[in-house]
Amino acid sequence: MTITLVASSLLVGGFAFLIADKITTILLDSARSDVRQRVTTGASYAAKQVSFYGQPQEAQLQETIDGTVNYLAGGDPQQTSGVVVAILADDYPADIQTRTSPSANVQPLISPELRAAIADGKVASQIRTGRLTGETTKYLVYGSPVPTRFGQIELYYLVPLGRQDVTAADARATVVATGVALVILLGLLAALVTRLVVNPVRVAARTAQRLSAGLLDQRMVVNGEDDLALLAASFNQMATNLQRQILRLEEMSRLQRRFTSDVSHELRTPLTTVRMAADLIFAERDEFDPAVARSAELLQAELDRFEELLTDLLEISRFDAGFAMLDSEPTDLVPVVHRVVDRLAGLAERVGVPIELDLPGTPVIAEVDPRRVERVLRNLVGNAVEHGEARPVLITLGIDETAVAITVRDHGVGLKVGEEKLVFNRFWRADPSRARQTGGTGLGLSISLEDARLHGGWLEAWGAPGQGAQFRLTLPARAGDRLTTSPLRLVPADAALPFGGPRDGGPLAIGPGTGGALAIGPAPAGDGQRTEVRS
């Protein structure tokens, strides 16, 4: 509507200006033509009347001029129109007096430029504003030289343009009124058309918002058979298909989660029986043949892994079903880190990976679920030891006013570009051909990500080929708070970034952000003094 009103206003305004200017020009040209003809005729008549006089001092000359002016003024068919006829002889002021009809002082309306043009023998005109017989009026002043035997006198017609001004003003008012009415009509038409087109689009937008909010039964009303009705019908068909597909996928997902949960539960019973038998065989393995004893050890190890896999599947099914519960309590995270390191110390010693701790000298208290936090750290440290390549693994703990963070840094093969997005996927492995040391299930990082989300925290990853990897767990210090920053940076300070290395202002953090989504942004700095312990 605004575009239509502005464009139509400019167009109609320009058109009205041109029309009004054209009407004014026509009226003025008509007045000029009429006055010029009268001036030419009057000048010819006056020349004949004064042609008998050879000197300006002759007695009858003034009377002849007076009679000529009166005749020319009386020859005007509209004597009451305000036309003033004047004969001037400024070259002979002592002998010939200025005569006007009707009587008026015309000197202020006849400019020196006009007199100069008349003196050169030209017929000239100009428009002047002044007062002659009444109120101030605009006059068309036309002058012509009148040749005589003794020299030249001047004949002037002063024609008021009041009627032309009124006519032009009426024409302008008519054009403006017509233009305003046209603009208003165009605005109403634009509003009507816009409403007809925009309303269905707005209805479609509101319906789409309701559909995105989960109200899958929302539909548009179809009226008529035009293009908008076709749009509404197509939208409704799309919504129906989406609803059908979403319900189908929800049902499939529900069945899949239930199947996973049921299978996990059902496998518990035979696994318990097999575990009892395997424990019995494993306890007596020294009395068996070496090959059988080795088989008993392999059976025991695989049963341990199978039991861990069932436990992880049950935990994943709880997350998928939305039944996972958080038991938050004020917890000192320093002992939690030590417990994890102590549990994995044997594995680290076996693969030759030293574990270094960078922990504050004071307790780090946060409202968390200690069991879930310990499980997350166990998974992160276990993966770091697994991929450490006999190089140190550094665990750092930091805290600020709103959050606590734990980073686990290894110096192994690292992650390729894009793998920081995949590392939290279920059963994903960076190198499928790599032999596992811990016999993991492939669900550890997925469960860790869900544990972090359950706390309202972040679990993020960074890695570069040949530079190792770093995982950062950030949790709110108080349960239910919203995270905005982390006390520790995600990209380690010793990392050489492709675009020039870490900057003083802090490197970029790349990894899952709030809720596990990929986050790219400035990584916060650490929290000051720390105590380092090596194992």
Automatic annotation (TrEMBL):
Pfam families: HAMP (PF00672), HATPase_c (PF02518), HisKA (PF00512). It is a multi-pass membrane protein. One of its GO terms (molecular function) is protein histidine kinase activity. InterPro entries: HAMP_dom, HATPase_C_sf, HATPase_dom, His_kinase_dom, HisK_dim/P_dom, HisK_dim/P_sf, MtrAB_MtrB, Sig_transdc_His_kin-like_C. Residues 195-247 form the HAMP domain. It catalyses: ATP + protein L-histidine = ADP + protein N-phospho-L-histidine. It is found in: Cell membrane. Keywords: ATP-binding, Cell membrane, Kinase, Membrane, Nucleotide-binding, Phosphoprotein, Transferase, Transmembrane, Transmembrane helix, Two-component regulatory system. Its EC number is 2.7.13.3. The chain crosses the membrane at residues 175-198. Residues 262-479 form the Histidine kinase domain. SUPFAM superfamilies: ATPase domain of HSP90 chaperone/DNA topoisomerase II/histidine kinase, HAMP domain-like, Homodimeric domain of signal transducing histidine kinase. Its main location: membrane. This is Sensor histidine kinase MtrB. It comes from Micromonospora ureilytica.
